[in-house]
């Protein structure tokens, strides 16, 4: 099963998780991480790292964030590069994650990423999709060195 780390500004992450658990009961491998005004990105990183390890069963973890480019998204993006089968999704809503909930048991992290972005378009996107629009910077020297 894919782990979920819901991470948003203020109390939105916990509110989303509470609403899901009220409807579906306790959700294994699912944690909320709130980014409060004044919280350092270092502390946010530590909280998200703990949540990543608590939710990862080896099949992958999906970071569900409220907006691309903000601190929760950036921290998740840095973590995803160090852990296999980690995806970062932005632009989530309650309706979207409720719809995707049953699929976390059957899909790979990559298939889940594709499906949630397709279902949530145009609001939802992923780090992977953003990287396809903006490929990594390559020095010309590196291109001609081969």
Automatic annotation (TrEMBL):
Main location per the UniProt record: cytoplasm
UniProt entry tagged with the keyword Transport: yes
Keywords per UniProt: Cytoplasm, Kinase, Phosphotransferase system, Sugar transport, Transferase, Transport
All residue ranges annotated as the PTS EIIA type-4 domain in the record: 1-125
GO molecular function, a single term: kinase activity
Location(s) in or outside the cell: Cytoplasm
One Gene Ontology biological process: phosphoenolpyruvate-dependent sugar phosphotransferase system
UniProt-listed InterPro entries: Bacterial_PTS_sugar_comp, PTS_EIIA_man-typ, PTS_EIIA_man-typ_sf, PTS_IIA_man
CDD domains: PTS_IIA_man (cd00006)
Organism domain of life: Bacteria
One annotated Gene Ontology cellular component of this protein: cytoplasm
Protein name: PTS system ascorbate-specific IIA component
